[in-house]
Amino acid sequence: MASHSRFIREPKTVAIVGCPFSGGQPKPGVDKGPIHLVEAGLISQFEGLGWNVKFEGHHQFEDIKTNDDPPVGILKNPKLVSRVTESIAKVVGEHVKNGELAVTLGGDHSLAMGTISGTLSTHPEACVIWVDAHADINTIESTGSGNIHGMPVSFLLGLGSKVPEFSWVKPLLKPENLVYIGLRDVDAGEKAILRDNKIKAFSMHEVDRYGIGKVVEMALDHVNPNRDRPIHLSFDVDALDPTVAPSTGTPVRGGLTFREGHFICEAIYETGLLVALDLMEVNPSLEDEASVKQTVAVGCSLLRSGLGETLL
Ligand SMILES: NC(=[NH2+])NCCC[C@H](N)C(=O)O
Ligand SMILES: [Mn+2]
Ligand SMILES: [Mn+2]
């Protein structure tokens, strides 16, 4: 077992990319997620695991001017989401190029358009493991909500009609380099997209049938058969059951248990191939104070598992 990623330089450094951003969906508060995660002690927790921690404060998106941001079709805030994710792509790309583990704190999941673009700019052969209740693969044609956090994967794959505002997104992700775990709320149009593009997905049905250990192994066999390619893990906290992570904008019952979520992060760390990790959709404005505390704490502990925290 590698002690940490073979793509990470010594002394091993984690760069925290705090993204207080909510423009990919309509519920206020998800922009406070990163602030709560850091205030809960994430930096000292990472240091406790032996990492050098780089954190220069949360990114400020206020200066991204979007006075004039009319919808494209039904897509909401296209200009804002495009500019924010483009800036995050550069930041994450820079960290990954430097051999630092990029940990991005969301914020809504539209941010992954940026984080994954950043990873692929340095490692075009990287694979993506997307852990979520949702597939987030709607196109401008298929989206029913117009919320861009339900669409980042289609942009990364280059599916659907091109939206000029997002022309900076290079379709570098190949369908065979993507795998999902935890799906249970997939729109009809998204199911067709997954089928047509032969994208591998392990829904909660497969988690129940095979157990999480086997599912992670099968997921890795699919995207990383020789265990030699960099891994980008994009974790939407709503993959967890709402009893485990209640404070999130689009909760769906029947999700991953506390241990199943952590097992995924532990197993990916153990590959020694992790180069970037996202934790998205923690919304501290939703549910009561105890639920917020619980969700933030689970977020921190998922991240620690991804950075090598072990049980023994
Ligand atoms: N990142 C998320 N929580 N995405 C939820 C997406 C829900 C729905 N499929 C939509 O397109 O709007
Ligand atoms: Mn989700
Ligand atoms: Mn998501």
Automatic annotation (TrEMBL):
Catalytic activity: L-arginine + H2O = urea + L-ornithine
Protein name from the UniProt record: Arginase
Residue spans crossing the bilayer: none
Names of the cofactor(s): Mn(2+)
InterPro entries: Arginase, Ureohydrolase, Ureohydrolase_dom_sf, Ureohydrolase_Mn_BS
Organism the protein comes from: Laccaria bicolor (strain S238N-H82 / ATCC MYA-4686)
The protein's enzyme class: hydrolase
Cofactor stoichiometry and binding remark: Binds 2 manganese ions per subunit.
